């Protein structure tokens, strides 16, 4: 299976998977570069809820999805409340959250669809985007997995919903765990580490107690996906830390909360 790559088009750098693109899947994760927002949102800020000017965010979003000849009215966004709920998206939801955060699908952190002409979009500044593709049933999904969503096993909830609603088989699914804060930078307190080990007692290696306590969210999600029946050979991990790579990514932790957001998108052509 092909790996992820960096792509550059019209001065915009983004991550994509050629193997999926060849099968008619629009899939990308933006960098922080190539937009019009000023500091501290410089420059391709995709978040409407961070204090940037809405008109600039609209321009950034449109600039990005222009790469596939799409319009904002085709985007669907969810509120991302750090939960673990999943919603099936239909064409009637087109445009929700694209220009007004308050119209985003409420209470939701993961979306799936089998319909063409819809672009699922979620936003990040350290949490992990997890992309799903079923090449057999032609279903795609996108989950926003921060530490709370990981604790709630949002990725397995997404898999189970794809299975129950669209008839997907877990072993057919291909999954990409995108950039997020790595264990190099995700230090946590002892009380949270205790909760993590209690929630995942069978997972070795996700907590590192050398000097400071750190949590490997990507490894945790990989192990959850393994338990959900995903073929380990069909799980791709980006491995890039958003906090370390300041030239490429926004980071909530590195910037003490005052920063922009990258955008993850996936859809069927």
Detailed description of the structure:
This protein is α+β, with helices and mostly antiparallel strands. It has six helices and 14 strands. A six-stranded mixed sheet has the order 1-2-3-14-7-4. 48% of the residues are buried.
In a nutshell, what does this entry contain?
With 269 residues, the chain is of the alpha+beta class.
Beta-strand portion reads 15-25%
CATH class: Alpha Beta
CATH homologous superfamily identity: CNF1/YfiH-like putative cysteine hydrolases
CATH architecture: 4-Layer Sandwich
Instruction: Estimate the global geometry from the Cα principal axes.
Output: globular
Rg (C-alpha, Å): 17 Å
Question: What are the SSEs and their pairings?
Answer:
Blueprint (H helix, E strand, L loop, with lengths): L4 E5 L2 E5 L1 H4 L3 E6 L23 H12 L9 E3 L8 E3 L21 E4 L5 E6 L3 E7 L4 E7 L1 H5 L2 H13 L7 E4 L12 H10 L7 E2 L5 E2 L1 H11 L7 E3 L24 E7 L1
Properties at a glance:
single chain; 269 residues; alpha+beta; CNF1/YfiH-like putative cysteine hydrolases; 6-stranded mixed beta sheet; 6 helices; 20% helix
């Amino acid at each position: 299976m092909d790996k992820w790559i960096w792509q550059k088009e019209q001065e915009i750098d983004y991550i994509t998977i050629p193997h999926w693109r060849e099968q008619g899947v629009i899939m990308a994760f933006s960098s922080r570069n190539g937009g019009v927002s000023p500091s501290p949102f410089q420059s391709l800020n995709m978040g409407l809820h961070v204090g940037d000017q809405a008109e600039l965010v609209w321009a950034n979003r449109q600039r990005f999805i222009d790469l596939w000849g799409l319009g904002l009215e085709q985007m669907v966004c969810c509120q991302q409340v750090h939960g673990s709920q999943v919603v099936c998206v239909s064409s009637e939801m087109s445009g929700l959250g694209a220009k007004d955060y308050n119209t985003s699908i409420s209470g939701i952190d993961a979306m799936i669809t089998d319909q063409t002409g819809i672009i699922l979009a979620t936003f990040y500044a350290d949490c992990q985007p997890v992309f799903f593709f079923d090449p057999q049933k032609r279903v795609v999904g996108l989950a926003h997995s921060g530490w709370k969503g990981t604790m709630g096993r949002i990725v397995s909830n997404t898999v189970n919903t794809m299975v129950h609603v669209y008839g997907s088989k877990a072993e057919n699914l291909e999954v990409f765990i995108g950039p997020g804060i790595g264990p190099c930078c995700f230090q946590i307190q002892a009380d949270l580490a205790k909760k993590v080990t209690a929630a995942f007692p069978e997972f070795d290696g996700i907590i590192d107690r050398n000097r400071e306590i750190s949590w490997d969210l990507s490894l945790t999600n990989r192990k959850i996906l393994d338990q959900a029946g995903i073929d380990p050979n069909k799980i791709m991990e980006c491995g890039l830390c958003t906090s370390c790579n300041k030239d490429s990514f926004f980071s909530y932790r590195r910037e003490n909360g005052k920063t922009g957001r990258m955008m993850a998108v996936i859809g069927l052509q």
